[in-house]
Amino acid sequence: MNIPTPWRLQGTGFEFCNCQPGCTCNFSGFPTSSDGSCKAAVLTRVASGHCGEIALAGIDAVAIMDWPKAIHEGGGRAVFVVPPEVTDDQLDALAQIFTGQLGGLPWVILGTTFAVTGVVRAPITVID
Predict the structure, then answer these.
(1) pTM of the predicted model, to two decimals?
(2) Among 58, 60, 66, 23, CA closest to 41
(3) b/e string for 21-34 if b means 16 or more Cβ within 10 A?
């Protein structure tokens, strides 16, 4: 039996999408965008967290996501952006969390709706 690595993330999330205000994909199930797609940029600002022994506090990560229809219908693609100083171990841990490989909500469900098509290492600036 393969027991997943325990993980925990605590922080703030920001989501911007192409639907009408209220992000209908998250609440009523279907996009209200003009073309019926769901396109989103999602920032996760990790205040504290870990994946096994790997510390994740202080990381900002952005997912740029594109689903052709409603999220739950799948077929989405995602590119993840992390700062250059994120280590390979931290990136691997975040990848396993965000693709649902380690279980836990919402990723165990959401991770089945998209394929990761790229990872970019670039500075992320959030203006508070």
Answers:
(1) 0.89
(2) 66
(3) eebbbeeeeebbee
